[in-house]
Design brief:
Distance between the termini: 47 Å
Radius of gyration: 22 Å
CATH class of the largest domain: Alpha Beta
Largest sheet: 7 strands, mixed
Shape: globular
Number of strands: 20
Order of helices and strands: EEHEHEHEEHEHEEEEHEHEHEEEEHEHEE
Structural class: alpha/beta
Strand content: 25-35%
CATH superfamily of the largest domain: Vaccinia Virus protein VP39
Oligomer: single chain
Number of helices: 10
Number of domains: 2
Length: about 375
Amino acid sequence: MSGAADPPGPGAVAVCQSALGDYVLQRYPARRNEQLRAWTGADLLLLDAVAALPSRPAAALVVNDEHGALCTALSGCDIATTLWTDSALSARASTLNAAHNGLAPPELVWSTQQPQGSPQLVLLRIPKQKALLEQQLASLARALQPGSLLLAAAMDKHRPVGLERELAYWIGPTVRERGRLKAHLWRTQGGMQTVPEAPAPGVEYASEALGMTLYSEANVFSRDGLDIGTRFLLDQLSRLRPVSRAVDLACGNGVIGLAALEAGLATEMWFCDESAQAIASARVNAGRLLKTATHSARFLHGDGLLDWSGPAPELVLCNPPFHIQHTVDDFVGRRLIQQAAHTLAPGGALCMVANRHLDYRAALRQGFRHWQVLAENRKFRVYLAER
């Protein structure tokens, strides 16, 4: 192990014992009484495979490293590492865990960009969204040269149907290795002579609320159509008072913030999301709706409102994620409520839609002087909380 001190703060801090060495790792964001580790069996299989290579490359491309377990271990073995990710949270986790172990952070490439060069080794954690997987494999198919190696891994309970077929179609002949640690690993060689045509970068659907077509990239929530929670929140916008500056927090393709602008609810709207593809989609849609008035739209790619540095907003609109990867969890929603409470101007308001079975009342009481259920139906509640 590198000998660095344990990272500070709450949450599960543990030593990941891997075939490439032992490293102190912590999930990000950290939370008290964390029961989950910062690595999975799929990560360990990938590191085992790297350790077993006859010779290790000088550099590697890591795709979708969730908390930096892969990047940290490779960097600890003097392998120059590039992280290709859609997630600002994952990027921050990888940087923090590298620092905890006295290592340099990985080079960062967002999912909206193409990694440069022709990597000889790629470590791919299979993403949750199959559309994102296809997009990534299509890009890798054009980058990998003959002799390059792609190692892919997934936890068995989260493995998408047809994964082996997808790897073979885009990259080349694929071998699935014997499963272990409730995970499987696949290895395939790059450099096919004929590369399949890449899929379209995004999809579109007609939005009745905006009277326009909305665009969504591969990893955007509800990319094929307006989800019913967002629709319920949009129905309540007319009940809110207009403000100068508002935020669409966890914006996805930006439909909530754009509807608020269209309704005259704000003169300036900030679109904030941890997904690079969500921000890219919101930019496209803002350009379509606002045309020459694009100055009224601002964008922040990062950990919610944690890096907010401008004047305080007077309104935050939010349809928070209710999953951490594949697990239903209200942690993300509670954290976004706290960020809104800390960022809003005095007298400002949070308007949030949430599934009825997720109880955010304690978080609202803690962060706001007054809150109410603005509307509810069988599936959702819309909360209005005031500072």
